């Protein structure tokens, strides 16, 4: 992508700027100097701020400081708080941003299902609210299996398939500390939703869904001046027999006709909720046997973990796309940088049993890894035993590392991953041949971003 004329110092505010975003926005620091606000939910002592975080107070503080600080745009890809906070601040300041009502409609998973039933019933599934408050006994008379998840959450927290009343009851038992965390994670959203989306009802509850067969995909795109545009599709590959992500592959192996169908579903839903500006990510299932596409959920922000994959394969940086939108400019005007790979993946290293031992790479391993794979991105997530146990309760597994790599094609990518994993002394996130259970074909298919079909 070509450089742009540098904007005034620190005039773009990035909210909750951690992990993928910290790396992604840093790539454009010379052209888009940024300021940051917000805290890290996953590190101490930053996450202590959760105890007194209030969304209205946070926006009031940012609004009071904005003009004095010289901020002129705001962006965030943080699902729990940032996307909504950015929309609220943009609205208050008169900056380009995703409409607040659209963010709320996407993030309130029960309300989103209700909207989907109205505009795209063929892409929906049977659902109902769990008729029990946190900690109350699970209702009798339900048919199993069921997929249960919070109405408002992120990172698949507490999302699980349960096969019996006993399993549902056990899954919804929370200790005093767990209840405190859950309520403090949901209440900032609830504060705004009570006023701006009252018809959706409280987000302090869970929703039940019919489990769906199929393989999972992610449609990434954006809306500019009301036109819905696709950037691409990323394939999600699971650890065998689980709902735990093993890696994310780009470009997609999904047939172009199905990709177009996914874009049409996204267009109808997004326009229905008034999503007229901003980036989005639609997670969905595709069952090749039945030809059914089923929406999992809509995220009213970029899937920041995938930005690096698009950059490697197509030279399009999703973080730059987000910055363009934050400044009210059409990302379709961007040109691509030279691609560095024909295929790329985000490899997710995790354990599925609390008894499994995890070893983090030492300094000498990291050095050898960096020398052998200078293009790689390595992230580690070391945790004490207590935090690991909480991950197993809330997520069903413990994710201890992520590696991003590119390759000339899917075969070269796998070979590079296996060599890189050996250097880290981690098992490579592959299971079987190229034609894995989640992949219908071994030949990826993707149209170059900004030349894909546009829905209006």
Structure description:
By secondary structure, this protein is of the alpha+beta class. It folds into 3 domains: 12-95; 126-209; 215-455, D-amino Acid Aminotransferase, Chain A, domain 1, CATH 3.30.470.20. The chain contains 13 helices and 16 strands. The chain has helices at 20-26, 55-69, 82-93, 100-107, 109-119, 165-171, 176-196, 256-272, 307-314, 318-326, 363-372, 385-394, 410-424, and strands at residues 12-15, 34-37, 73-75, 127-129, 146-150, 160-162, 206-209, 215-224, 227-238, 245-250, 278-287, 292-299, 343-351, 377-380, 398-407, 454-455. Strands 8, 9, 10, 11, 12, 13, 14, 15 and 16 form a 9-stranded antiparallel sheet that branches. Strand 9 and strand 10 (245-250) form a beta hairpin. Helix 2 (55-69) packs across helix 3. The two termini are 26 Å apart.
Tell me the CATH architecture of the largest domain: 2-Layer Sandwich
The name of the CATH topology of the largest domain is: D-amino Acid Aminotransferase, Chain A, domain 1
Query: How many independent structural domains?
Result: 3
- Give the topology string: H per helix, E per strand: EHEHEHHHEEEHHEEEEHEEHHEHEHEHE
Percent of residues in beta strands? 15-25%
The level 1 CATH classification of the largest domain is Alpha Beta
Radius of gyration: 21 Å
Shape: globular
Low-confidence stretches: 433-443, 451-456
DSSP summary: helix tally: 13
């Amino acid at each position: 992508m070509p450089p742009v004329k540098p904007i005034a110092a620190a005039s773009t505010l990035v909210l909750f700027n951690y992990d993928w975003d910290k790396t992604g926005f840093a790539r454009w620091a010379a052209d888009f100097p940024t300021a940051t606000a917000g805290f890290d939910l996953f590190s101490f002592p930053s996450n202590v701020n959760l105890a007194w975080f209030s969304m209205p107070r946070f926006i009031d503080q940012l609004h009071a400081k904005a003009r004095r600080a010289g901020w002129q745009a705001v962006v965030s890809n943080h699902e729990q708080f940032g996307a909504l906070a950015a929309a609220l601040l943009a609205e208050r300041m008169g900056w380009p941003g995703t409409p607040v009502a659209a963010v709320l409609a996407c993030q309130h998973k029960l309300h989103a299902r209700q909207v989907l039933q109205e505009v795209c019933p063929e892409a929906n599934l049977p659902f109902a609210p769990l008729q029990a408050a946190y900690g109350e006994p699970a209702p009798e008379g339900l048919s199993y299996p069921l997929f249960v998840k919070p109405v408002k959450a992120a990172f698949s927290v507490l999302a699980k398939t349960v096969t019996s009343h006993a399993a549902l009851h056990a899954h919804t038992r929370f200790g005093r500390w767990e209840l405190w965390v859950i309520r403090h994670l949901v209440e900032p959203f609830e504060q705004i939703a009570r006023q701006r989306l009252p018809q959706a009802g409280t987000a302090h509850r869970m929703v039940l869904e019919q489990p769906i067969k199929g393989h999972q995909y992610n449609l990434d795109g954006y809306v500019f001046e009301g036109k819905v545009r696709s950037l691409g599709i990323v394939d999600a590959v699971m650890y065998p027999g689980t709902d735990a992500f093993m890696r994310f592959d780009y470009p997609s192996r999904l047939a172009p006709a199905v990709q177009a169908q996914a874009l049409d579903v996204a267009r109808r839903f997004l326009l229905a909720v008034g999503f007229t500006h901003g980036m989005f990510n639609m997670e969905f299932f595709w069952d090749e046997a039945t030809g059914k596409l089923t929406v999992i959920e809509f995220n009213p922000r970029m899937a920041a973990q995938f930005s690096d994959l698009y950059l490697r394969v197509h030279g399009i940086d999703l973080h730059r796309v987000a910055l363009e939108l934050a400044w009210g400019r059409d990302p379709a005007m961007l040109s691509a940088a030279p691609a560095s790979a024909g295929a790329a993946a985000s490899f997710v290293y995790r354990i599925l049993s609390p008894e499994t031992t995890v070893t983090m790479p030492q300094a000498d391993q990291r050095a050898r890894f960096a020398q052998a794979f200078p293009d790689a991105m390595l992230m580690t997530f070391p945790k004490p035993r207590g935090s690991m146990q909480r991950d197993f309760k809330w997520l069903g597994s413990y994710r201890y590392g992520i590696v991003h790599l590119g390759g000339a094609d899917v075969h070269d990518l796998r070979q590079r991953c296996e060599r890189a994993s050996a250097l880290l002394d981690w098992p490579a996130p592959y299971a079987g041949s190229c034609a894995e259970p989640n992949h219908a074909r071994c030949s990826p298919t993707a149209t170059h971003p900004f030349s894909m079909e546009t829905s209006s």
